[in-house]
Amino acid sequence: MDFPQNMSMEEAFALAEAEAKLKQALTESKARFENAVIPNRLNEDWRFGRPHKHAVALAELLQSDTPSQGEATVQHAGEAAVPVTAEDDDLRQTEMLMPTIGSDALLGMHLKRFGDGYALYIEEDTKEPILLTYKTDTLYTPSTFIMVAPGVKAHVIEQHYGCEKGTIFATRNIQVAEGAELKVELQPYGCARCMSITNIQNMGGKVVHYTHHFACDWAREETVAEIYTPGADNQLFSANKLDLDQVLDQHTRQIHHVGGATSNLLYKNVVDDNATGIFAGNIYVAPGAHNTDAYQSNRNMLLSEKATIHSLPGLEILADKVRCSHGSASAPMDEEQLFYLLSRGIPRDEALALVSHGFLQDVVDKFERS
Amino acid sequence: MSLIIRNLSARVKDGAQILNGINLEIPKGEVHAIMGPNGSGKSTLSKVLCGHPDYEVIEGTAELDGQDLFAMSVDERSRAGLFLAFQYPVEVPGVTNANFMRAALQARLPKGEELDAVSFYKTMRSKMTALGMDTKFTARAVNEGFSGGEKKRNDVLQMMMLEPSYAILDETDSGLDVDALRIVSDGVNAMRAPFRSFLVITHYKRLLDYIKPDVVHVLYKGRIVRTAGYEMVEHIEQNGFDFLKSEE
Amino acid sequence: MDETPFQIDTRGEFSFPENHKFDAGFGLTEATIDYICDAKGEPDWVRQFRKDALKKFNEMPMPTHWAPEGINDLDFDKIRYYLSHGTMPYKDWEEVPDDVKRTFERLGVPEQERAFLAGVDAQYDSETAYNNMREELSKQGVIFVNSTEGLKEYEHIFRPWFGKVIPVTDNKFSALNHAAFSGCSFIYVPTGVKVAQPLQAYFRINSESMGQFERTLIIADEGAELMYMEGCTAPKYDSATLHSGVVELVALKGAKIQYVTVQNWATNVYNLVIQRGLAMEDAEIRWIDCNLGSGLTMKYPAVVLQGRRARGEVVSISLAHSGQLQDTGARMIHAAPETTSNIVAKSISIGEGRASYRGEVNVLKGMKGCKNNTECDALLINANSRTDTYPAISVHGNASAVQHEASVSQVDEEMLFYMQQRGLTRAQAMSLAVNGFINDLVKEFPMEYSVELRRLIDLEMEDSIG
Q1: What is the chain A residue with the closest CA to B50?
Q2: Which H or E element spans position A350?
Q3: In a designed cystine with C400, which of A39, C51, C146, C363 is the match (CB 3.0 to 4.6 A)?
Q4: pLDDT at C352 (0 to 100)
Q5: Coil, strand or helix: which one is A355?
């Protein structure tokens, strides 16, 4: 091992230890890809959302000869954006170590196609939101890395365009330093299949994450938001209107490795026609992570007879002195709200549209205020 | 022209009967008050008239300027000129006050005609100021996070914007402090006109000191048992509703 | 009410010498089943039924979605599947052997009899040792016998529902119970009969490595009503003991069944119970469940709401101290329109104890006007305890409403300080606070149980804090 010049013994030992740890982690992570099975219904994380149809098709596509082909653009990024290349071993390692929620096998396949996407090293406040777009009409497997330096305020919007028949499978690694603030939005549009695996590592800053799916036939979204430093704050939002035969399968983990931090989640769906919405969330508070505040709320509005909701909020609390709660409510439109609008003379169709739109707008308002 | 209710009986859907043959006529230009003890059916009457889905009419009719009220849907009744200031105004998350009122006013215009946004906001702001409301409330979700008093004011604001010909105020005084009560009453009084009538539902004399009714009805066990002038308000204030027990 | 009407050793850490007339040995094979059938003198259809179930048991995998990891420590070959003093229930208290009597005396059964004057069906190991039914019950046509007698004497009522609410292949433990079941109750309440007094059964495991596969079937005919109470303690042993019961309830049109359990096994007992009720039109089933003992409990009382306007409720308290995993919960399957269900679960984790809530609420396709409300609250005492909540909610269609709320909290330090300032010890203050936390649920239990529950919590607090 080559040590940099002028390094003290302690620093050298710390570096050596860190390298040894990384090596072991990489060995373990190789094993996890080798042993991983393609998602099926017996897997707790794939109980709903017809994995035998969608996940299997995605896996087959990833294992096929179909090349990863798409267009990546970035705007308003200045010096911050660097294209990801297959040769970038540091970023590849970051992706290798990222956690999934039941999708190790798929992540392993993504890694084999590693080399697309953008890394954003944000060291100055963004004046305009950085706009990142990935577009394909076949298959695209980009990786996004967002690193926000201490004290910096940034806003990033990531959009996926699937042109109706394209599949986009993206990974997103987000690291926010102490005192930094990141607003980040994920907006998939019109994908046949759309999957994203996101890992947020919060080192004492604030992350406000918002996802909005629009017109994707099948979308799977895994978000693991981790807190490593006291004072950190993770806010996760999502608002979606599902119709036709759409399936939206969202999985979240709010992990508190240390105490004295906050995380909050609000996911709302309006489900119409024959669509299915799945929310499976978990709050994990590690042993000793005292004085944690963590909340999780999933709210669904069902508009049609064939609309379906599966809601699995979860708590795993191994620490004391915590304030944690979760709630889940799935119901038709509130009759009293509807009556109130009707009583003011607003026609029924318009009242329905206003109330269901307002139900989601509420999330957008909260996101914007955060 | 008037609101005429004949022999109206109604019940909670699949539940208890609450109204037992109500007869009531409110001519244009008059203010009527309905008083009565808890559970006498005051709020049910207002909800049945507006068409709340929890209640069903067993028999009887209601006519609004000669139109069959019960043949109309909730929103049609509103557009026909009937307004209810709710006892508990409803929170509607994500829908702003301004958008809500615009949608309600737009629905009153003939097809193809667009509401003028500039004059809409101007009117709304001036009415809000008159009611002592912060004009920032235009951008807030309807009633969400409002205090009890703010909700009541917001309902009165809606009444002033929609200019109904028949307005029912369902316990609008509850949750209001003295100052707010005066402001709200001033707003209502300013709307009194020969072409508009009010039905004021309340427990207390307090509100009726500000909004002087022409006629006072006493509702008891789903029936109107007394109809008198303002002197009835004084009588109830002094003696309570105990005199009704002899009615049984 | 200072003196409880009966005294139960809270930890069940006592036992008496073993002296069993029948003992089927370790492990479960066809030979074991033949042994059980011969000992009980069962008809051939039962023997075949058991053997078919055994085949299924051997084929089926361990449960995955619904199981904590501890379940894999269980070794089915180290369990004894049948022990008995004989198959004839003792009709007269005087005939009961002295050692059994001594156990029951510690359990307070005679006081129970005096206290309730209702039928007592008390189980000692696998067979019903004492069975006394109140005269009036039989006059009303109520059948209250053990399951062996039920399937022999009342086959025409018993057989059509036996294994229908919980089929053999429901899961591995259901198959196990169908193969090895012995003892416990069969109850039939005829149309319109409302049983005024709660019916009771006591269970007790008193032999090392003794599996207890109790089997209860309760049928409430149209408009009938009853409450059934079950309470347990067990002696503490070194090697694991398995308790894997199956309880089936059938509430026909307009009937009401309340099933109350207070479970306080020793911590080396695996308590894996399947409880499920079928509620037909306008019927109501309530599970009132309290889990205090056992090392690993897996129990999720269920109601299948099969008829229009049926109602289901689960009220659940669980307390996990060090060495315990209380994996409890509830399931509500809305299989008919306008059905309503309610779940209230409260858990307390003390020391290194772990309490988990696992729940399922499912509003099936095409159902309208269904409602569920679920509340889960967890209280953590001491920094090393753990609590989990894993609900799974599925709603189909736009005419039903389902709501779930869960929270985790600690005893408020300010409140403890306030009480201590008024002169209470910390343990007393804690005990009051914990009792306050579950107070609204304790009220749901019959009074004798609620008094005992409060006393048990006092003892727990003294042990863990005092």
Answers
A1: A343
A2: helix A348-369
A3: C363
A4: 87
A5: helix
- CB-CB: which of A310, A321, A331 is closest to C410? A321
What is the number of domains present in chain B? 1
Give just the sign of the alpha carbon dihedral C30, C34, C37, C40: negative
Domain assignment present for A16: no
Amino acid at C387: T
Contacts of A79 (CB under 8 A, 6+ apart): none
Cβ within 8 Å, pair B78-A350: no
Task: Kindly report the nearest CA distance between residue A311 and chain B, in angstroms.
Answer: 21
Which stretch of DSSP H or E encloses residue A118?
Answer: strand A117-122
Pairing mode of beta strands B215-220, B223-228: antiparallel
Six token digits for residue A339: 């009556």
Note whether B75 contacts A361, CB cutoff 8 Å: no
Residue A107 lies in a domain: yes
For residue B240, the enclosing domain spans: 2-247
Select the residue of A308, A319, A331 nearest C396 (Cβ to Cβ): A308
Domain that holds residue A279: 21-333
Nearest CA in chain B to A338: B92
Confidence band of A86 (pLDDT split at 50, 70, 90): very high
- The Cα–Cα gap between B46 and B32 comes to 13
HEC profile for chain C? CCCCCCCCCCCCCCCCCCCCCEECCECCCHHHHHHHHHHHCCCHHHHHHHHHHHHHHHHCCCCCCCCCHHHHHCCHHHCECCEECCCCCECCHHHCCHHHHHHHHHHCHHHHHHHHCCCEEEEECCEEEEEECCHHHHHCCCEEEEHHHHHHHCHHHHHHHCCCCCCHHHCHHHHHHHHHCCCCEEEEECCCCECCCCEEEEEECCCCCECECCEEEEEECCCCEEEEEEEEECCCCCCCEEECCEEEEEECCCCEEEEEEEEECCCCEEEEEEEEEEECCCCEEEEEEEECCCCEEEECCEEEECCCCCEEEEEEEEEECCCCEEEEEEEEEECCCCCEEEEEEEEEEECCCEEEEEEEEEECCCCCCCEEEEEEEEEEECCCCEEEEEEEEEEECCCCEEEEEEEEEECCHHHHHHHHHCCCCHHHHHHHHHHHHHHHHHCCCCHHHHHHHHHHHHHHHHHHCC
Q: How many CB pairs under 8 A join A and C?
A: 121
Contacting residues of A for B89, CB less than 8 Å apart: 340
Record: contact B94-A350, CB cut-off 8 A: no
In a domain, A180, yes or no: yes
Which DSSP symbol is given to A150?
A: T
CB contact under 8 A, C389 and A305: no
Q: What is the distance in angstroms between the Cα of C439 and the nearest Cα belonging to chain A?
A: 21
Question: Alpha-carbon Rg of chain B, whole angstroms?
Answer: 18
Tens place of pLDDT per residue across chain B (248 aa): 799 999 999 999 888 999 999 999 999 999 999 999 888 999 999 999 999 988 999 999 999 999 999 999 999 999 999 999 999 999 988 888 998 999 899 999 998 899 999 999 999 999 999 888 999 999 898 999 998 889 999 999 999 999 999 999 999 888 888 888 888 899 899 999 999 999 999 988 889 999 999 999 999 999 999 999 999 998 888 888 888 777 55
- Closest residue by Cα to residue C407 from C328, C327, C347: C347
What's the pLDDT tens digit per position in A195-251? Answer: 999 999 999 999 999 999 998 999 999 999 999 999 999 999 999 999 999 999 999
Who has greater pLDDT, C317 or C124?
C317
* B and A adjacent (3 or more CB pairs under 8 angstroms): yes
- Is A359 domain-assigned? no
In tens, the pLDDT along A101-111 reads 999 999 999 99
Tell me, what CATH number does B110's domain have? Answer: 3.40.50.300
Instruction: Give the total number of structural domains in chain A.
Output: 1
